[in-house]
Design goal:
Number of helices: 6
Shape: globular
Largest sheet: 9 strands, mixed
Distance between the termini: 27 Å
Number of strands: 20
Radius of gyration: 18 Å
Bound molecules: N-oxalylglycine, manganese (II) ion
Strand content: 25-35%
Structural class: alpha+beta
Order of helices and strands: EEHEHEHEEEEEEEHHEEEEEHEEEE
Length: about 280
């Protein structure tokens, strides 16, 4: 039996007493997986993982997606060396960042939604953290959709959103990408704004990220207004769990029914995280 405690929030739970460096038996893994589907975000503290152990555990969730190519190409030494792991860090070695996303605020988003089939899960493991800042918040897109005023819910029931692959969640242009002047010309997948989660069968809001998003077949001005309205609704405090990191925390989230953001932190402080992302089956 796993020890699972829900947070005082609409989503998220802590799983204690688990050592992910040891291979989980099938039964415990199914319990963990069921808890993950139920809570959308699981925090598993006190882990001591090598790169292979993180990759091994992540692969239990499914085949791994490679980190964005633009990120891995641009990085210097000092980050994780296994290709499936994306180092998220502000640390620089010889003037070159060892990972992505730096120390700035990362705006609300779900991971890699610009792909036709975005990753279903992301796993983020904290190796070094700053004294303060860099909290990561998660918002529940089932709850947001469920509690939406009928009028707004009705207006988004048939819309599809153009997603953008050019910018990271901290707003920097990816290596090799072209600046987006006009959001309707963004390059990325188009997804319906409401999805049915294939495993829970629940409906969730699926918006990707705000920057350079646009609604298909709608004049830009109207699209901007509707997107602003949806985003300000779904990112309200009542839908959010805010995670304050400890070294050794492993957090796994469901990218189909949550969005997340990260607070900025002092650039003089070090933060090193390892991330894996799991492909849709
Ligand atoms: C990510 C991400 C947030 C963080 O890895 O997808 O958004 O806390 N990171 O660094
Ligand atoms: Mn992210």
């Amino acid at each position: 039996m796993l020890n699972i405690t829900s947070f005082d929030a609409p989503l998220g739970a802590k799983v204690s007493g688990l050592d992910l460096s040891l291979s989980l038996d099938e039964h415990s893994f199914s319990e963990l997986y069921a808890a993950w589907l139920e809570h959308s975000v699981l925090v598993i503290p006190d882990q001591s993982l090598t790169e292979p152990a993180l990759v091994e555990f992540s692969k239990r969730l499914g085949q791994l997606e490679m980190p964005p190519a633009s990120e891995t190409r641009a990085r210097g030494d000092g980050g994780a060396s296994q290709p499936e792991i994306w180092t998220i860090s502000n640390v620089k070695v010889d003037g070159v960042a060892i990972g992505g996303l730096g120390n700035l605020e990362a705006d609300w988003h779900t991971d890699m939604s610009y792909l036709e089939t975005p990753p279903i899960a992301s796993v983020l493991y904290a190796r070094e953290i700053p004294e303060v800042g860099a909290n990561t918040s998660f918002a529940d897109m089932y709850a947001a959709l469920d509690s939406m005023p009928a009028d707004l819910r009705q207006r988004l029931s048939d819309i599809c959103v153009q997603h953008d692959s050019a910018y990271t969640s901290v707003g920097t242009l990816r290596d090799g990408a072209t600046k987006v002047g006009d959001a309707s010309k963004a390059v990325g997948a188009i997804h319906p704004a409401v999805l049915t989660h294939p495993e829970t069968n629940r409906q969730a809001l699926y918006m990707g990220r705000r920057l350079n998003a646009s609604i298909q077949n709608m004049p830009m001005e109207q699209s901007e207004d509707l997107l602003d309205e949806i985003w300000s609704f779904c990112t309200q405090r009542q839908f959010v769990y805010e995670h304050v990191w400890q070294i050794g925390d492993l957090v796994m989230w469901d990218n189909r029914c949550t969005i997340h953001r990260r607070d900025a932190f002092d650039s003089e402080q070090r933060r090193i995280m390892w991330r894996t992302q799991v492909k849709a089956r």
